[in-house]
Structures are given as structure tokens and as C-alpha cells.
Design a protein that fits this description.
Largest sheet of chain B: 7 strands, mixed
Largest interface: A-B, 25 and 28 residues
Radius of gyration of chain A: 13 Å
Oligomer: heterodimer
Number of helices of chain B: 0
Number of helices of chain A: 0
Radius of gyration of chain B: 13 Å
Strand content of chain A: over 45%
Largest sheet of chain A: 6 strands, mixed
Distance between the termini of chain A: 41 Å
Order of helices and strands of chain B: EEEEEEEEEEE
Number of strands of chain B: 11
Shape of chain B: globular
Chain lengths: 114, 114
């Protein structure tokens, strides 16, 4: 079945460090891919998305490119801030045309130290 | 514009009881999805509703059910509660069901079963 695998956390970085969180997926067809972020005590927020191969999603300095050949959607940011501390979830939509059925990875907790 | 609201925010129940959780989507949103979040299983899709019809259902036992009303508000019900049902239940709404529409998540209802 469809699944998402993302790197285990927690990840601890110093401010202004480079961030990569790996995400790979298994899916039939052509899923859309998403990164969501969950700040402490809050619900999930969509960070960025890509709906077809080679698309690059970007938002708030974060980027991820939909790589069909490697079935990956790695999240990157060139210079993290303390305010980026949160849990990041990679997800795919498995129901062609419907985003309601999202399959999530386990989440990666990021802590950024001043 | 008000976000997705979920009530109650916290709930403690005893094994064998039943519980009903409520979700009010963003005004104008017609699609509502429910997810269960636990430390062990992560985020798992429960069901999706659109215009009062269940469109998709995750792999959960029949004790989990839901419905959507004509004003798009949604409820989910869990009967005969088990300890393993302790989780954060998240509701998400979107304008429609296409994956091009962003899902907006509520803060969740924290259910504890004792």
C-alpha cells in the first residue's frame, strides 16, 4: 500500500544551520506530496506542496522538490531560526484528486538552539 | 476569518463508554476530514465527508463513525471505548475535495480513556 517514510528525529541544530529532513514515499499512480508543520500545542499547518514530478514547493524559506525517479520529497532550509522549532510531517494524498485522505510520515521533531 | 474549531478540547472517558467529538469547519468549507494522532501510530486518516456524504474511510473498526450536517459541521463518535483510543483527534476542513485545495487543521481534541 501507499506509505511515507521520513527520517527519525529529534533533530537539533544551531540557529542559521542548514536543514534537511528526508522523506521518501511508496505510492501507486501520481500522488501529490505535502509538508505540514505542527508547532507546540497547535494543529497542523500546510507548509508547502507539490502536485507533480519536478515541481518545487516553497514557503517561508523552506523548499522541497518532487523527485519521481527517487520517490523523494526532502525538506530543506538554508538557515533555520529558533522559531522553526516544531514537528514536521511529510504526507501524500493517495486518493487521486482528493486531498482528504492524507497519509503521513511519523514526523520529525526539530529543535533549533540560539 | 475564524479557523477550524473543535470541541471539547480535552476529554476523559472510561473504557466501555462512548464519546462524540465535534468539528466546525471554516465558513464556506464543505469538506471535513478526521485524523487520529498517537505517539505509536502517528497520524492516521479516519474519514472524509463532503456535502453530508462520507467519501473516504480509513482502516478503523466500526466503533468509529462520523457524520456531517447540512451546515458542514461534523461529528465523530467512538463507541465502546478502549484504552488504545486515547489520542489527539484532529479535524481538517477545505473548500472542496480536490488536492489543490489546502486543508486547514483544528487544534484537536485530546481524548484520554482510563
Amino acid at each position: 500500500g501507499n506509505s511515507v517514510t521520513q527520517m527519525e528525529g529529534p533533530v537539533t541544530l544551531s540557529e542559521e544551520a542548514f536543514l534537511t529532513i528526508n522523506c521518501t514515499y511508496t505510492a501507486t499512480g501520481y500522488p501529490s506530496l505535502f509538508w505540514y508543520v505542527q508547532y507546540p500545542g497547535e494543529g497542523l499547518q500546510l507548509l508547502l506542496k507539490a502536485t507533480k514530478a519536478d515541481d518545487k514547493g516553497s514557503n517561508k524559506g523552506f523548499e522541497a522538490t518532487y523527485r519521481k525517479e527517487t520517490t523523494s520529497f526532502h525538506l530543506e532550509k538554508g538557515s533555520v531560526q529558533v522559531s522553526d522549532s516544531a514537528v514536521y510531517f511529510c504526507a501524500l494524498s493517495s486518493n487521486g484528486g482528493s486531498q482528504g485522505n492524507l497519509i503521513f510520515g511519523k514526523g520529525t521533531k526539530l529543535s533549533v538552539k540560539p | 476569518k475564524a479557523g477550524v474549531t473543535q470541541t471539547p478540547r480535552y476529554l476523559i472517558k472510561t473504557r466501555g463508554q462512548q464519546v462524540t467529538l465535534s468539528c466546525s469547519p471554516i465558513s464556506g468549507h464543505r469538506s471535513v476530514s478526521w485524523y487520529q494522532q498517537t505517539p505509536g501510530q502517528g497520524l492516521q486518516f479516519l474519514f472524509e465527508y463532503f456535502s453530508e456524504t462520507q467519501r473516504n474511510k480509513g482502516n478503523f473498526p466500526g466503533r468509529f463513525s462520523g457524520r456531517q450536517f447540512s451546515n458542514s459541521r461534523s461529528e465523530m463518535n467512538v463507541s465502546t471505548l478502549e484504552l488504545g483510543d486515547s489520542a489527539l483527534y484532529l479535524c481538517a476542513s477545505s473548500i472542496g475535495t480536490s488536492e489543490t485545495y489546502e486543508q486547514y487543521f483544528g487544534p484537536g481534541t485530546r481524548l484520554t480513556v482510563t
